[in-house]
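Q: What does the assembly look like in three dimensions?
Context provided by user:
Components: three
Sequences:
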Amino acid sequence: MPLVHISLRAGKPEAYRQAIFDSLYRAMREALSVPEDDQFMTITEHDGANFRHGNAYGVYRSDDVVYIQITVFDTRTTEQKKALYKRAAELLGRNPGIRPENVFVNVLESAKENWSVGHGLAQFA
Amino acid sequence: MPLVHISLRAGKPEAYRQAIFDSLYRAMREALSVPEDDQFMTITEHDGANFRHGNAYGVYRSDDVVYIQITVFDTRTTEQKKALYKRAAELLGRNPGIRPENVFVNVLESAKENWSVGHGLAQFA
Amino acid sequence: MPLVHISLRAGKPEAYRQAIFDSLYRAMREALSVPEDDQFMTITEHDGANFRHGNAYGVYRSDDVVYIQITVFDTRTTEQKKALYKRAAELLGRNPGIRPENVFVNVLESAKENWSVGHGLAQFA
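A: Here is the predicted structure of the complete assembly.
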């Protein structure tokens, strides 16, 4: 049930954006052990005037930076999160070829009773 | 003060999207007892290439799936949340007619001091 | 590393939207002491049918309302947050000229290990 919102500059081809979904799904499968077909992801494309990035923390980002906000259960360990960042950067680097400087990830945590994945039920409460 | 961000596939008529707002507002009024006219909601429409859903957890979703992320105070009980999911699925099922499999809700919690609903003030701190 | 998502009605000129970024960045520099060039912000513009606001809490908002959702470390004090709301409303009021009734801010908190600002690393864990 991770819910993933991705923000990037507009203009990348469809295959590029599909590869982002594929690589993130695979990273979540491997690092977070999410179940098969646990894919709940959106991409929002922004014009230059609606997207801003900086170089804080000694990381030299370009217009290809991708903001990835992932909401998950509040049960993940720090080791799992570290594995997620590493694997996401590796896989996104391979396909669609995003430089590791441009992979920005933030995890939000939400308790098990905070999810309804269909049918009006709290499946995990 | 719930802040509600809704994501769905592009192409639904305006009346459909208005009904989503109306049904969610009513569900929040009934299940969370939010005050009158507490409506702070956005919809983002996504092309197919920017929207992905899976069938994890035994729920067979279609392209009509709607991701609803609701940020609220961190004061709600599990019972209130369960009532919200149930009522949202019922009302969205009635109008605009979304199948219960396609109603995906995630609640984010944010402390009272984390809100400013105008005037630069922390009204609830 | 605040990650800032801003939602507003479509149709404002580019200079207006740039001023929102500039004023929020400055407010975060002053109130939260974020480092130089710590700018990770997106704007999403919504048609009228995809954007709803109410007048709850005795605040009379117009179509110019701006929803600002800021994700930060879970280390900020209530005083820092209050300073942020105040300064954001002041600076947005000056440029681009948003009335204080229309500045709606929500802060989400995310632990230090929940951030990777590039290179697949958990820089703050």
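Follow-up: Helices of chain A lie at 14-32, 78-94.
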